[in-house]
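Bumping with the actual sequence this time:
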Amino acid sequence: MTDSGAAISMFERIGGSTTIDRLVDCFYDRMDTLPEAQVIRAMHAADLGAIRYVLKRYLTEWTGGSKLYSVEKGHPRLRQRHIGFAIGNAERDAWMLCMRGALEETVVDPAARQDLDKALSGLADWMRNRP
């Protein structure tokens, strides 16, 4: 994910791997504690360590950083990987609630935060597999 017409990647705009690590940790901390996120927390293992690792690697690559995810896992095939989970509006909204809070807490540049929010919102919408 790079900005159209710009040479700098979103990964660089938000502060690189330090910000990605903080973003993912904040995201899963919110998922683990917010009552509104119970619907998506229930889809995850009790220990979130492994999935934190995977999301950090995915977001690093997706935002324009090093190709960490595809080297290990191949093409993301996100919808295929999530097909076993019922993802509708409630799940999308809970995911975005956690992600928006994490973005607010970790991405300092308001324009980059807004651009990343827009891109992640599109991704969350695309992941729905039920009405």
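The tokens above came from a reply further down the thread. The first helix runs from residue 10 to 14.
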